[in-house]
Amino acid sequence: MVGNCSHVQRPVSTGWDGISHLVVLDAGWQDKCSPKVLIYHIFTNKQMEHYELTGVDAGKLTALVVDTVTLPIGTRAYMGETRPGMLAILDLPTGRLWEVSLSTSPFIPPVTPSSSLLALSGHHLYLASHHSDTLFRLNLTDLRASIPLSSTNNQTVDTKMEGKLLGPPQGLVVDPWGSLYYCLARDYVCVSWDIHQPLRAESHRVLLQSAELLPDVHHLFLDLQKQVWALTDSNNGSHCVRVS
């Protein structure tokens, strides 16, 4: 219900805790409804938690992945931002929110990573942008070491440039076997890259190419069987298309 801030206003990304909970990032609505993170039980469809991200501008957060790290750290959600070079972290047990800066030294001139698209693998978090073909990654060990600070100074996490994708991606997700999936708007195609191989064209596989089925991909996600689906938009509404 638009304007009723207790309801989802603009869902932009979802994550799964690997057990039974769906985590939804709501980007908020205008100046009235702040962004929030909602947690639902997959099997009962009941809302379990509601984290209001007070002080965050509507539309600032663009993507979410869930890191089910072990105790005592607990579960965290990493959220991409429209502001380059920044990543937001939400501690799900407590609802504490903080940011880290993404450093890519020693590149000259400096390269500023974008986190508007996120994909989580076993040991790394991959970052990309709808507007660039550059793929970055950071080590989850470094990211998990980040803790909320009482000061306003952001912590810095070292970020590596992985290489160049085949074009600016639409959607980004990694399956448990190490294949990173993304789609290309210009060719109406979804491809996969084996993250254990160098990021080159020959390390890619074409999975689905269709202007009819993939007119405009908004999101890629894994189902419970680890199959990849694309959420697309067209004049006939939104649809889910199986990619692999």
TrEMBL record:
Alphabetized UniProt keyword annotations: Secreted
The keyword Secreted is assigned to this record: yes
GO CC annotation: extracellular region
InterPro entries, per database record: 6-blade_b-propeller_TolB-like, MRJP/yellow-related
Protein's organism: Cuerna arida
The keyword Secreted appears for this protein: yes
Compartment(s) of residence: Secreted
Name of the protein: Bee-milk protein
One Pfam family linked to the record: MRJP
Primary location: secreted
Family from the record: Belongs to the major royal jelly protein family.
Superkingdom in the source lineage: Eukaryota
